[in-house]
Amino acid sequence: ASAAAGVPDRDLRGGVHGAAGLGVPPPVRVGRDRAGGERARGPRTRRAGGGATGFRQSAARRRRARGQPASAPLARLGARGGRDEAIDDDDDDDDDVDDDDDDDDDDDDDDELARANASEDQQDTTPLEERCVFHVYRHLSKTGGTTARFVFDRQTVFGDFEYPLEYGFDEKKWDDLLIRWRSKADAFLANDKNENADASPPPRTLVEIRGNWPSNWPAEAFEGRILTDVETLRLEYGENISSSAADDDALASPENPIRKKSCSVTTSLMLRDPFKQYESFWRYYIEKRQTLPEVTDGTTRDENLALKKWPDADGVAFWGDSFAEWASRVPSMQIREALGNKCVAQMRQPGFDAEFRDGTWVRTGNHSFDAATCDFEVTELDFRRFERLLRRIDVVGVTERFDAFLLRLGEVVGLRWLEYVKSNASRKNADENEGLSVDESSESPRNEKRDASETERISRAVVSEVARWDIQAHVLAKRVQEEEIKRNAIGGAEGFEERLQTFESKTAVLGGKTFVGGVPKRSPYVWVKSAEVKASDGLLKPVVPSSFTDETGGGQAVAYIVFDPVTLVHRADAEKSGAACVKGCTFDAPTE
Fold it and tell me: N or C: which end of the chain has fewer CB within 10 A?
């Protein structure tokens, strides 16, 4: 699929396996080497599992040349051998697995390969502090991304990772990050003998791709520019992907020796059951626009708003009188957002036009969007394009299996602090993991007009039609998640499910909060406003973990609606000074 998309093909994905305290194997250091500098690569043989036999032979030869045991630890081979054919199943039932029935023979082969690659000698004790990492997460609206962001921020307050870019960053900030990361990775990889390792620590970077304010650039550029940049990083800094000992020997020379270290460069994306995603999106962004605001000056609400025009006007005439009427004008939101150039802004604009007549708004018809500037319809060609994009992603998940997605990120990327509290949970705002049914909100008088079951039936029928490509995308994402775990996770699907059960079994309730995965450990650092650091008379001193590519680690909290710069400091010092934690503390456990 990558080749079909016109991007560099790849066989193997780097990553670390393990999450601290979760009964998961320790981080795995990928045992492949990489030649320093650039080299033109000729055609290489590709097979399921990334050419395991050739890799074992060449790796053994290199180890013998260094006087090391030939049976040094192997890392998980990360090729995805997923299918590229179309998905025809429109059923959005989470339990539907009938579409996998025709692939039993292939799955058996995959199981055998996974077991072959999951031997005990694959595990290594290389600590995360010695890992070089670059990971990009594509956040789609109302799919669990807020929770994922909180988990990512939590990694920074332990010093494990930097998370430097706000969503909505511009192209220059992306380019600057790549320059900084390459510079630090070069220094780390050049230090082959780990002499004075503290002077050249590896970078570990997390990036969230999210559209909207202040810039749409990262969302619009994800498929073409950002993914290609990440794939280029993987070719430059990832594991040696040659498939024979002869190829590996050809890489080495006195001037250009085989490197003994490499970097993990990966990507992730999560989709959600379309009905729940639409419902959550409606409750969070749209429902309030359908209800005209109250006024206190004695005028009617419509007269008070008569001067407002599309797209700023509120009310049912512009936004529809129900979830179903709004949804009917908004096709396949997740595919559109993932592709980036399908007029995502239309998702949060009124679907209808209206005029103010005789003291009230009167709908005049559907709003006509200019196809040249707002191409929001999703076609089969768009779905095929999405399929190719999904095959370029390393860790794919669905919100209904959020814990599995999170744990898999922990294993692939090296995230060690995975405990979380579900976010956006309330009666009015559907939970990131479990959407409320459309008729559950007793505060919505529009839903009282019909029997609750009839309302939901109509709503589901509308979403089934308008989001039919999202429904197929969700089925595909579930399949890809299952295949990736089966093929790449240590112990295959069975071993991964055991680790997942261990993680979930530690869930605890404390202070009225349910902490999935257990009560979190308090971090040594917190993010506070930089102004408070300056005003502390030296009590608060900036902390710069070795994983950061610059001294600030990003120094921003835009996602938390804090637009002032922020600084990482020691938690104990912040508590002494009374400086409030701005980010990274969302999942802190109560202290009393």
Answer: C
**Nearest Cα residue to 546 out of 284, 198, 314, 263:** 198
Instruction: Tell me the β-bridge partners of 562.
Output: 557
Distances (CA, A) of 128 to 148, 344, 351, 425, 514: 20, 38, 49, 33, 28
Separation CA 572–CA 580 (nearest Å): 12
Q: How far apart are the C-alpha atoms of 122 and 47, rounded to whole Å?
A: 19
pTM reported for the whole predicted model: 0.74
pLDDT in tens, 530-554: 999 999 999 999 999 999 999 998 8
CB contact at 8 A, 476 and 86 = no
Provide the pLDDT for residue 559.
86
Top pLDDT among 549 and 71 is at 549
Q: What is the DSSP letter of 491?
A: T
Helix (H) or strand (E) holding 204: strand 204-209
Tell me the pLDDT tens digit for each residue of 432-476. 334 322 232 333 334 444 467 888 999 999 999 999 999 999 999
Short-list 44, 65, 49, CA closest to 119 = 49
CA distance 143 to 432: 6
What phi, psi does 398 have (nearest 5°)?
-125, 145
559 vs 468, higher pLDDT: 468
Range with the poorest average pLDDT among 311-320, 389-398, 515-524: 311-320
pLDDT (0 to 100) of residue 212: 67
pLDDT single digits (tens) 260-290: 578 999 999 999 999 999 999 999 999 999 9
CB atoms within 10 A of CB 73: 18
Cβ 430 vs Cβ 529: under 8 Å: no
* 342-373 b/e (C-beta count within 10 Å ≥ 16 → b): bbbebbebbbbbbebeeeebeeeeebebeeee
**CA 205 to the chain's CA centroid:** 13
At residue 349, the pLDDT reads 95
Cα 438 from Cα 277, distance rounded (Å): 11
> 50: Cβ–Cβ under 8 A, 6 or more apart, which residues?
11, 12, 77, 78, 79, 241
Quick one: CA torsion of 540, 542, 543, 544, rounded to 10 degrees?
A: 180
Per-residue b or e along 503-525, where b marks 16 or more CB atoms closer than 10 Å to that residue's CB: beebeeeeeeeebbbbbbeebeb
Q: CB-side exposure of 543: number of CA atoms within 13 Å? A: 23
Tell me the DSSP string of 147-168: HHHHHHHHHHTTTS-B--PPTT
Q: How many CB atoms lie within 10 A of CB 11?
A: 21
For residue 208 the two structure tokens come to 């969230």
**Beta carbons within 10 angstroms of residue 572's beta carbon:** 11
The H or E element spanning position 566 is strand 566-570
Q: Find, among 305, 315, 300, 475, the residue nearest to 390 by Cα.
A: 475
Secondary structure element (H or E) that encloses residue 357, with its range? strand 352-357
Beta bridge partners of 34: 259
DSSP state of 360: E
